[in-house]
C-alpha cells in the first residue's frame, strides 16, 4: 500500500521514486567523494560552531585566534591529533584494538548513502538525483548500520584490557539497546503513513505536510532518542569524564582516538539528516518559500540549501542541550528510556495503526485526524514528564543494604534530621552529600582510630588510678 500526500490510499509497489537509470560509474564516484568531503568539512565546522555556541551561551569569546573568527582552530586540532605520538597498550588485543575505531567511523560514513540531498539535477550533463542510492528498505538499512556502530565502542573498550574502558563500553551497549528501541518505534509510524521505507518516497510524501507536525509525538520521541543514540549530553554516560575518564576512548591516542571523535560528530550529522528526511520534509523548502515562483525553490540546486539548513538546525539543537542540561544519573537515564519513551512510542504507534485501519473503511482526512491525536498525545506526554513521582515509602523502612538499625532518609529534605546529627549517605540506594546541618558518620578507619584512642586513654586512666592507690 502507498499513501499519497493528499491521504488517498492507492495500490502501488513501495519502490523508490528516485531514478538512477542515467547514473554511470563516474557519477557514483562524484557523489561518494562529495558525501565524504561534505561530512569531513562539516565535522571541522561543527567542532568550531559548537565551541562558539557554548562560549556565547556562557559569555565567553570562544575560539578567536587562529584564522578569521577562529575558523582554523578545528584544523589546528586535527593536525595536532595527526602528529601526536601513537601509544600502544601491551595487554591489548592488537587486532581488535586497531579495528574498533575503524568499525565506528566506517559505520558512521555509510548512513548518508541513502539520504536524499535534493531532487534531480544535472551533473556534467547527466540528470541524476542528489542521492547516492536508494532501496525499498532504506530506513532499515540506516537502522542496521547505526546498530553496527556500537560494536566499535564495545570492542574498543574490551580490547583495551582496562577497567574504565570496559565499563564505558558496557554502558554504551545498554544505551543503544534502550534508545534504539524507542527510535525504531518512533519511525514505524512514519512508515505507516508514508506507505514506504524508501527515503526518497518518504520525502515525496511530505510535499504538503511535514510529518513532524502530523506525527509530533513520534518526532519528540525521536529527538530524545537521537541524542541518546550519539552519546551526547545529557546522555554521554559511556564517556562520562567525571566517572570513567573518557570511557571507552581512554586508552586511545593520536589518530585512533581521532577516529572515535570523528565517528561521534559524523553520527550527529547522521541523526540530524534522518530527522530531516523522515520528519522535516527532507529537501523541501519551508512553507512560505514554497509560494515563491510556483515552487521554483524546490527545483535545481536550491533544495540542497534547505536540506543542509535543516541538518544544521538539528546540530544546533544538540549544541543547545549540551550548554543547558547536566548529565543524568544512570537510573534516571534508564527510567527515561524504558518507562517513558518506549511506552509512549508504543501507544502512539497503536493510535496511528488504528487511524490507518479506520481510513480503509471510511473517507477520513488523514491530516486532520493525526493533528488532533498528536495534540492530545503531546499533552499527555508533557503531563507524564512533569507529574511528580509517587513516594516509595522508604522513609519508614530499613536501608536496603541490610542495616536495619538505620532508617532510609529522603534525599532533598533538610528537616529529617536535627542539626549537627549524622545521617546515612547510602539510605536512598546511592551516595549523596550531606546537607547543611548534617554530618557524615565516621569512616571505618576513623572509627577504628577513635576506638583505639579511647582504649589507650582508658588504659592510661586505669593505670594512673592504680598507681595513686598504691602511693596512698
Automatic annotation (TrEMBL):
Q: Where in the cell is it found?
A: Cell membrane; Membrane
Compositional bias of kind Pro residues: 431-443
Q: Which GO terms describe its molecular function?
A: NADH dehydrogenase (quinone) (non-electrogenic) activity
Membrane-spanning parts? 25-49, 95-118, 138-160, 181-202, 208-227, 257-280, 300-321, 333-357, 369-387
Its UniProt entry gives the catalysed reaction(s) as: a quinone + NADH + 5 H(+)(in) = a quinol + NAD(+) + 4 H(+)(out)
Look up the EC number in the record and give it.
7.1.1.-
Q: What does this protein's UniProt record list under function? A: NDH-1 shuttles electrons from NADH, via FMN and iron-sulfur (Fe-S) centers, to quinones in the respiratory chain. The immediate electron acceptor for the enzyme in this species is believed to be ubiquinone. Couples the redox reaction to proton translocation (for every two electrons transferred, four hydrogen ions are translocated across the cytoplasmic membrane), and thus conserves the redox energy in a proton gradient. This subunit may bind ubiquinone.
Question: What family is this protein classified in?
Answer: Belongs to the complex I subunit 1 family.
Q: How does the annotation summarize its subunit structure?
A: NDH-1 is composed of 14 different subunits. Subunits NuoA, H, J, K, L, M, N constitute the membrane sector of the complex.
Q: What is this protein called?
A: NADH-quinone oxidoreductase subunit H
Amino acid at each position: 500500500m502507498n499513501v499519497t500526500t493528499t491521504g488517498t490510499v492507492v495500490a502501488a509497489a513501495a519502490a523508490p521514486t528516485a531514478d538512477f537509470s542515467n547514473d554511470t560509474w563516474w557519477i557514483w564516484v562524484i557523489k561518494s567523494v562529495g558525501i565524504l568531503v561534505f561530512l569531513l568539512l562539516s565535522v571541522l565546522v561543527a567542532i568550531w560552531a559548537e565551541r562558539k555556541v557554548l562560549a556565547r551561551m556562557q559569555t565567553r569569546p570562544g575560539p578567536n585566534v587562529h584564522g578569521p573568527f577562529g575558523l582554523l582552530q578545528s584544523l589546528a586540532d586535527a593536525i595536532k591529533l595527526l602528529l601526536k605520538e601513537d601509544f600502544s597498550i601491551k595487554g591489548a588485543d592488537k587486532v581488535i584494538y586497531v579495528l574498533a575505531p575503524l568499525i565506528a567511523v566506517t559505520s558512521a560514513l555509510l548512513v548518508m548513502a541513502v539520504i536524499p540531498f535534493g531532487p534531480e539535477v544535472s551533473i556534467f550533463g547527466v540528470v541524476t538525483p542528489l542521492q547516492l542510492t536508494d532501496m525499498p528498505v532504506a530506513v532499515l538499512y540506516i537502522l542496521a548500520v547505526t546498530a553496527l556502530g556500537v560494536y566499535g565502542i564495545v570492542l574498543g573498550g574490551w580490547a583495551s584490557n582496562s577497567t574504565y574502558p570496559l565499563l564505558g563500553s558496557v554502558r554504551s551497549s545498554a544505551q543503544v539497546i534502550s534508545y534504539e528501541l524507542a527510535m525504531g518505534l518512533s519511525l514505524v509510524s512514519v512508515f505507516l503513513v508514508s506507505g514506504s521505507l524508501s527515503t526518497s518516497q518518504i520525502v515525496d510524501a511530505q510535499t504538503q505536510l511535514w510529518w513532524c507536525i502530523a506525527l509530533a509525538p513520534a518526532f519528540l520521541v525521536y529527538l530524545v532518542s537521537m541524542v541518546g543514540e550519539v552519546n551526547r549530553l545529557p546522555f554521554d554516560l559511556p564517556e562520562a569524564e567525571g566517572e570513567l575518564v573518557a570511557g571507552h576512548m581512554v586508552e586511545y591516542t593520536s589518530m585512533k582516538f581521532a577516529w572515535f571523535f570523528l565517528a561521534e560528530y559524523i553520527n550527529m550529522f547522521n541523526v540530524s539528516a534522518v530527522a530531516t528526511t523522515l520528519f522535516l520534509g527532507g529537501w523541501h523548502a519551508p512553507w512560505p518559500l514554497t509560494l515563491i515562483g510556483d515552487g521554483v525553490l524546490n527545483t535545481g540546486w536550491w533544495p540542497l540549501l534547505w536540506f543542509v539548513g535543516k541538518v544544521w538546525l538539528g546540530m544546533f539543537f544538540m549544541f543547545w542541550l549540551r550548554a543547558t542540561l547536566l548529565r543524568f544519573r544512570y537510573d534516571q537515564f534508564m527510567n527515561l528510556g524504558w518507562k517513558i519513551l518506549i511506552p509512549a512510542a508504543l501507544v502512539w504507534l497503536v493510535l496511528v495503526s488504528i487511524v490507518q485501519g479506520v481510513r480503509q473503511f471510511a473517507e477520513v482526512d488523514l491530516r486532520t485526524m493525526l493533528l488532533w491525536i498528536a495534540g492530545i498525545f503531546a499533552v499527555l506526554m508533557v503531563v507524564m514528564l512533569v507529574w511528580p513521582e509517587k513516594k516509595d515509602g522508604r522513609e519508614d523502612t530499613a536501608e536496603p543494604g541490610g542495616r536495619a538499625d538505620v532508617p532510609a532518609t529522603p534525599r532533598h529534605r533538610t528537616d529529617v534530621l536535627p542539626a549537627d546529627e549524622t545521617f546515612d549517605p547510602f539510605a536512598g540506594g546511592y551516595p549523596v552529600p550531606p546537607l547543611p546541618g548534617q554530618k557524615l558518620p565516621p569512616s571505618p578507619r576513623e572509627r577504628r582510630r577513635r576506638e583505639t584512642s579511647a582504649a589507650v586513654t582508658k588504659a592510661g586512666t586505669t593505670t594512673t588510678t592504680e598507681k595513686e592507690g598504691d602511693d596512698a
